[in-house]
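Problem 12. The chain below contains 233 residues. Write out its predicted structure in token notation.
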Amino acid sequence: GGPAQWRGHKLAEVLPGMDVGLIERSLRSVLETGRPVADLEVSSQACDEPGGQQFWSCVQFPIKGPEGDSAGVVHIMWEITERVQDQRRHALADLASVRIGTTLDTTRSAEELLEVAVPCLADVGAVDLLTTVIEGDNLARQARDDAMRLQRVAMRWSRDSAAPPDYARIKWHEIDPTKLYHQRLVVGLPTFVPGFGDLSTEQIRGMDSGAGLRRMLAARTAGAHSLIVLPLT
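Solution.
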């Protein structure tokens, strides 16, 4: 089709997922004032990555007619997703270095970790520690086939809602050695499930059993759509 197929269409039709409201407000301002915009940053939903965002830098300037009056506006944009993500990572690392580990208290450090992670990285977060660590044996090794007994020492839910009772009341659980959750933690690998909210109950059963399973089902019922579990070393 080429560019001709978009002639006469609105920007939202040409660029679905783009923050066109911000772009159009800026375009109207350029048209009314005649002042160009050098670096307007906008975001869009990445079509090939669920939950992903793309970022764009835009330049806008007016077109003058024969009489010197504004006849239109030129809008040019290029993608700067990688640059924005790098800036955010550096800002988060700076924040974490200042906010996490202000005391030697393990529980307080866990709370500080969540104060940075929520809402910067997630809507909900929790820290579970091995009971051996809580009892003071930080160097205890976990055998691959041993059940992991974990106790929740910190939890942070999104500001505009409370943790559902079925999620909040579970303070500790034993991770099933035959399930994915245990197997990934023993080898120190993260588990990322971007489509968690769409998993069936049977699929979630493959991740854990018992209290861990009940907690994940409660999180899904509360609207959790993705999940990431990171081992702490």
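Discussion. The chain has nine helices and eight strands. Students who got a different answer should revisit the alignment rule from Section 12.3.
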